Amino acid sequence: MISKKIICYPLKDKRKRFLLGKNGNSELLAVGLNPSTANESSMDPTSKNVESIAKQNGFDGWWFVNLYPGRCPKPKDLPKKPKKNYLKQNLTIINEIIQSEEFRIKDVLICWGNNWLYEGALKKYKPPGWWRLVSNKPNRICLPAMLMTTFNN
Predict the structure, then answer these.
(1) Between 19 and which of 9, 36, 62, 138 could a Cys-Cys bridge form, CB atoms 3.0 to 4.6 Å apart?
(2) What is the rounded average pLDDT of the residues 48-77?
(3) Rounded distance, CA 108 to CA 99, Å?
């Protein structure tokens, strides 16, 4: 059963979010483009979708990280120049999550939809080396973002 407590890092920060999720014994790691409004108090539609996908696929926990941690409800409003300190800290945190025994991540869901096409977002916002970190764990699968809607219909 997925925990009811939402874990968010950092807490009460309206500018950035590096991690959101709920503990479990078998966890799904979702990688989005950028965080929207979900925080330690409430989930947004995207985080609700990730939780639903996790449940439907037998996971009892889930974690959500993003290529760029700057909060922006609409990807088209992402900054033209990403903050390098955000990217660096984001990569460090993703590395810690992947390497830590505290996280029980079994699979990865890639879920940035078609927004990665927006003005080269994937090239601009992904922290260098992030894919290597995610793909080094055994038993990984990556699902196309279009499946997010398929799972919930």
Answers:
(1) 9
(2) 90
(3) 14
